[in-house]
Amino acid sequence: MGIVKEFREFAVKGNMMDLAVGVIIGGAFATIVNSIVKDLIMPIVGVATGGLDFSNKFVRLGDIPPSFKGNPDSFKDLQSAGVAVFGYGSFITAVINFVILALIVFAIVKFMNSLRKQEEAAPAAPAAPPEDTVLLREIRDALKQR
User: Which residues of 15-39 are buried (b: 16+ CB within 10 A; e: fewer)?
Assistant: First the structure.
């Protein structure tokens, strides 16, 4: 019964909700980054490299079965037929996705750290001295005037 109670306290504190929100936002963010890479960056890379399409770059490792009815130059057709293929183009795309995602997360963390530094650097208004300190200063000043 102790574990259930401990888990309930963990979930109620908000840690679990923060984690759930982070995972959901992260999943949506990954979809956006995948779209940026696939729809915006890779076509530009393809044009710059003379029409090179990374998504269809592979090395066939296995034999094509006699019942194969697809395009032997298509990565997806060969994969769906169960042919062993070394898909280095998909890996290159995944690496580009990771690098872009890492750069974006780095920029967000850097921005948040700069906001924190600004808050820390802002001079705080001096706190009013305690009443006994004020009284002692008045006594000191009165004694100096004598």
Answer: eeeeeeeeeeeeeeeeeebeebbee
Q: Which residue has the tokens 């963010």?
A: 29
Structure tokens at 47: 């044009």
Compute the distance between CA of residue 146 and CA of residue 139 in angstroms, rounded to an integer.
11
Q: Whole-angstrom Cα distance, residue 70 to residue 77?
A: 6
What are 99-140's pLDDT values in tens digits? 887 888 888 889 988 888 887 776 767 778 888 888 888 899
Distance, CA of 48 to CA of 50 (rounded, Å) = 6
Tally DSSP H helices, then E strands, for the chain. 6, 2
Q: Output the six-digit token pair for 122.
A: 């802002």
- 63: phi then psi, degrees, rounded to nearest 5: -80, 150
pLDDT tens column, 16-66 = 777 788 888 888 888 888 888 778 887 887 788 777 767 778 898 888 888
Helix (H) or strand (E) segment spanning residue 86 = strand 85-86
